[in-house]
Design a protein that fits this description.
globular, 25% helix, six-stranded antiparallel beta sheet, 6 helices
Length: 254
């Protein structure tokens, strides 16, 4: 019997955001094909139901009137292995998607093998988001995500940064001029937590603090102090503490 890894030569991911309101609501189709060895991609992303919104309302939410995007090209083949691993470990649901979600269509030698609905919706949606971000980086539409962090203990100041290169699926940690590659899953989970709490921009500074504490810059030029300018939203999930711990582990690790 031919294994899944050897038989599948591509995947088509189709997503509908469902009941999410505009300007956030969107659909996309991402076709991935590695039958020739390279990872070929075709992306069509369309934002929906914006007809009733003014341009000002769209801009206020951080979007533009022209956010639709189409692309055809190649990605680094480093993405093929994690795609196959996720496919092989996924359990498929017999339930129809009602309020938005993602579907997966496997391709074998270019042949459509039928639409599947993954039970692990969040994992597939995150994978698709990572792939789209990889496309944006590859075509220079967006720069790699860089998080700067400062830890101040007594008179010791430690500056470091975490840069996520989606284009090559690699995360670089830098401290005192030295850099190293860190575990992808660990780093992505930490980045996800970084964007979980509430950032109070009225308390933000253009320079990192020098008093005892921890300070973070999420790439927009503003520094926020954890515990003062960065506050937990959910009292049952201490994101601020997890950010401190995550970066402290990176700082202490070699």
């Amino acid at each position: 019997m031919t294994s899944t890894k050897n038989s599948i030569t591509g995947l088509v991911l189709e997503y509908d955001s469902g009941i999410i309101p505009p300007p956030y609501s969107h659909v996309f189709r991402l076709a991935l094909d590695w039958s020739s060895g390279d990872l070929s991609t075709v992306l069509d992303l369309h934002y929906t139901e914006r007809e009733e919104l003014s341009e000002e309302e769209i801009f206020d939410e951080g979007f533009t009137p022209n956010d639709d995007y189409s692309h055809k090209g190649t990605l680094n083949s480093v993405w093929i292995k994690p795609l196959l691993q996720l496919y092989e470990t996924t359990r498929w649901s017999s339930k129809e998607i009602e309020d938005g979600g993602i579907t997966v269509t496997p391709l074998e030698k270019g042949k459509d093998e039928g639409v599947k609905i993954p039970s692990n919706q969040e994992e597939w949606q995150l994978m698709a988001q990572d792939l789209i971000q990889a496309i944006y980086e590859t075509v220079k539409k967006e720069a790699p995500l860089k998080i700067d962090y400062r830890q101040v203990e007594g008179d010791q100041i430690t500056d470091c940064s975490l840069t996520v290169h989606f284009s090559v699926r690699e995360v670089i940690f830098e401290k005192k001029g030295a850099s190293r590659v860190v575990n992808w899953e660990y780093a992505i989970q930490l980045i996800k937590i970084v964007f979980t709490p509430d950032y109070h921009y009225e308390l933000a500074k253009e320079e990192a603090g020098t008093k005892r504490g921890a300070y973070i810059n999420c790439g927009d030029g503003y520094w926020h102090e954890l515990g003062k300018g960065v506050m937990n939203i959910d009292p049952s999930f201490d994101a601020v503490k997890k950010i401190r711990t995550g970066f402290a582990d990176l700082i202490e690790g070699e």
